[in-house]
Predict the structure of N-acetyltransferase.
Amino acid sequence: MIERQAEQHRYVAFLDGEPIAFAAYRDAGENRVFTTTVTNPAHGGRGYAGLLVEAAFKDALDEERTIVPQCSYVEHYLRTHPEWEQAFEERGLLGAS
């Protein structure tokens, strides 16, 4: 399950009720700056970070926020998932990292 914790500026992935990964961001004006993505090593390589980023991207698009990927994982995710990069570029919502 993915949960947005807006007051803490993060998305958290839970497995069996326990947090196993998070993606942190900060909002700066119209920008949503993704600062870090962390997965518990015991759960790495299973796609949880990708699920977090997709949930965060969907919300950013819905809110018409420009994404700024300062986190290397988010930057990598954009490069390897061109459909997301295109979705943000088409709306003029892709900022420089």
Remarks:
- The radius of gyration is 13 Å.
- The longest strand covers residues 18-28.
- The chain has one domain: 2-90.
